Amino acid sequence: MNCPESFQSPRVIQLFRSVRAAVTVNSQTPPWTPGPRISELPGAKVIDKPLHAVVLGEGPSLVLVHGLLVSGEMYAPVVPALAEHHRLIVPDLRGMGASRILPGPYTPVQQAADLAELLRRLDVSRAAVLGTSQGGPVSMQLLHDHSNVVGRLILVCTYAYNLESIREKIEGFLVPWIMRFVGPRRIGEMMRTGNPTGGKRMTPEQGRWISAMVAGTPRQTAIPLAKGLVAFDGRPWLSQIKVPTLIVAGTHDEAVPPHHARLLAKGIADPRLVEIQGAGHLAVITNPDEFVQIVEDWLTETEPPR
User: Fold this and answer.
1) Inside any domain, residue 200
2) What distance lies between CA 1 and its chain's CA centroid?
3) pLDDT digit string (tens) for 160-183?
């Protein structure tokens, strides 16, 4: 008997196949890194309250908000170039990375509140905020709840609501259960395939690097983090976004397909939408030069509202 089309989601099928294959992967191989850790770069300053963050570079403030199960280290391929013209603030969101020991709740509302407090402690009155994947909802929540601190918004491979279709509703139902029964370690092993979310492949070294990052998220925090991702719905706010907004999508993103970027662009007043040809969900890693060029060009051309 054939399964209904909704259950034949390429993302779900690929996830289960990759996880099954990951059981046989040797996880003892030391992970490759794209250079020094962000905290080890010249001039970097580490902040530990209200959450772990690294601050480096000079210029207008730019906050880099990472995605689910990873950390601010995911931006390592682009940080050196961006730090040439910006004061970068690179946090690890509550429940992940070096902030994984912080207690819940692990919701976009709490994570946005953490970011607002971090900016207050750094005496940053307003910043450009860039969110990738799950970092997009957190960035939109920050703008919604603390609008005075966000001057410009950059949304990368992300969504306002991730349960648009029947397929996505099924995936949304499954994700917390996958976190519970499969766990971040084996999901991390999946990343070693180099192409877990479509588009341009990561190198084997990059795959091991991301794998180690994902595997470091505790299972007990991964479950509520996933539930928060599924529950987020920013659609009612899109028309209220008045700050300059850049939307970046990968044309071959299978985790958050490009139609989500188009829905964001349709709901937000006068955004700029840019698609990176051939890129998947991890464009910041696989297409770093193009990513930096798109972001820098847009930031140079726009100004925050006065």
Assistant:
1) yes
2) 38
3) 998 777 777 777 777 777 777 777
- Please give the model's pTM, rounded to 2 decimal places: 0.87
Average pLDDT over residues 297-303: 94
How many Å apart are CA 151 and CA 280, to the nearest integer? 27
Under 8 Å between Cβ of 287 and 200: yes
Q: Is 306 a domain residue?
A: no
Containing domain of residue 11, as a range?
A: 5-301
- pLDDT higher for 104 or 189? 104
- Stretch (H or E) spanning 223: helix 219-231
Do the domain assignments include residue 261?
Answer: yes
The count of structural domains within the chain is: 1
pLDDT in tens, 44-56: 999 998 899 999 9
Residue 12 lies in a domain: yes
CATH number at residue 90: 3.40.50.1820
User: What is the Rg, in whole angstroms, of the alpha carbon atoms belonging to the chain?
Assistant: 18
**CB-CB contact of 136 with 237 (8 Å):** no
Rounded Cα gap, residues 241 and 259, in angstroms: 19
d(CA 207, CA 201) in angstroms, rounded, equals: 9
Q: What are phi and psi of 12, to 5 degrees?
A: -70, -45
